[in-house]
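Q: Sequence in, structure out?
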Amino acid sequence: MEFGRILTAMVTPFDSEGKIDWQGVEKVVEHLILTGSEGLVIAGTTGESPTLTTEEKLKLFQRTAEISGRRVPVIAGTGTNDTGYSTALTEKASKLGIDGIMAVTPYYNKPSQEGMYEHFKAIASATTLPVMVYNIPGRCIINLQAETMIKLAGIPNITSVKEASGSLDQISHIIASTPEHFAVYSGDDSMTLPIMSVGGHGVVSVAAHIAGHELREMVQAFSEGSVEHASAIHRSLLPKMKACFIAPNPAPVKAMLEQQGIISRDTRLPMLPLTDAEIKQLEQWFSLA
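A: Exactly. Output:
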């Protein structure tokens, strides 16, 4: 399946009691589709997945797929540092009308490259859906090396990678050494255009919650050969992209969505919602855009 070029790592709305705000879920899905998201990644880091129970994740996958109604692909975040749990969750999620799986590199326990290969192979074997691997050494400590990713790309339903290593050398090597249909996505908003310039496919974005139209215009302009226009949009978006991370993600994005009347800024511990003073600082960053 073609997931699209602009995928959004969707926030999970909560109410003041810490429960999932299901009306808010519908509002966010509609907002993202309306503002240019071509696919939705559910229960990733931005979705505060470590705080979600298995039952909540499964209900969130199913409900998002129902709201989307096949308008955009829905990709379920099922990866953890426990291979058995990840494969079981992947198998259950695959029965809920979703369109793909995203699995992060195992965090904390620091497996070897071969251990990671076997981990992702097991997840892929638990589903017939396309699987996106997520490499983010900054959070998981370990780096899924290019050669390991290239080997994983030989598994038929591992069709893409979300790369947040920050290394254009590594990313370029993956792009050059994987099949033409294999898609490399930027895992950092600010790296979207640089990664596309070396053959990347698109982005799994946080900033698309509040700058979806601009991101879509940038990606489209680059794809059509309007490099100077795409570069100008990239530069204008950098303050907004930076603003999304003035506090631990997803608190800033949730605060901006609250400002738009879409959801509340509420998070689950250990994440904290932005204070009023922090929101004023956030607005100053946006005034720079």
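The chain has one domain: 6-227.
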